[in-house]
């Protein structure tokens, strides 16, 4: 399977980093701080990966536009309180190492800010593993195809030779719009049924399962 691709693009939160619960809880805690209706777990998880405005419109629809900076500040307080405890999913390091050893280009496309992703990569010891990255504050957010199209253009790889790996429908919709292949992981923010509805190339429950599919001889 790996012979079909020259570039593998990973989402970060919920795909490589086991951070879905921390993000969802920070979304909920920030709403509570501002006296807003607190979104349930499914809603708070579903918006992970979207651009800020769309995520807030779905998660906290009664938030007044002038209070967005206040909400964002409270979100950061709660997220940063949990950030040091975040870890990579089992199998993430091994998969990244073997893809690199096989000569595959690696990239990240994430709803995080540039600063947030660089901090996460440094904390995980993966800062030098990716040839390029795209974040929500650099271009159009998911599910718009811009992140993938900019990455394929920067790295001179055809979309047809690119694989997007993510845990949300936003990732898979972005892949479809960019005409790249998409693979879903059920370990993160969106459930199996929602991911399956996007008709990905494949669905897996863990990174080791994905690893065996991509590189069965290893």
Walk me through this protein's architecture.
This protein is of the alpha/beta class and 218 residues long. Helices cover 45% and strands 11% of the residues. The protein contains 10 helices and 6 strands. It has helices spanning 20-33, 41-46, 52-59, 68-83, 92-101, 114-124, 146-155, 169-178, 192-196, 207-214, and strands at residues 7-10, 105-109, 132-134, 162-166, 181-185, 202-204. A 6-stranded parallel sheet has the order 3-2-1-4-5-6, with helices on both faces. Helix 1 crosses helix 4. The longest helix is centred in the middle third of the chain and has 16 residues, at 68-83. It is globular. The two termini are 12 Å apart.
Write down the oligomeric state: single chain
> Can you count the beta strands?
6
Largest sheet: 6 strands, parallel
Percentage of β-strand residues: 5-15%
* Head-to-tail CA distance between termini: 12 Å
Rg measurement, Å = 17 Å
Structural class: alpha/beta
Helix content: 40-55%
**What shape does the CA trace take?**
globular
Mean pLDDT: 95
Specify the number of helices. 10
| Sequence of secondary-structure elements | EHHHHHEHEHEHEHEH
Strand order within the widest sheet? Answer: 3-2-1-4-5-6
> Which regions contain 5 or more consecutive residues with pLDDT less than 50?
none
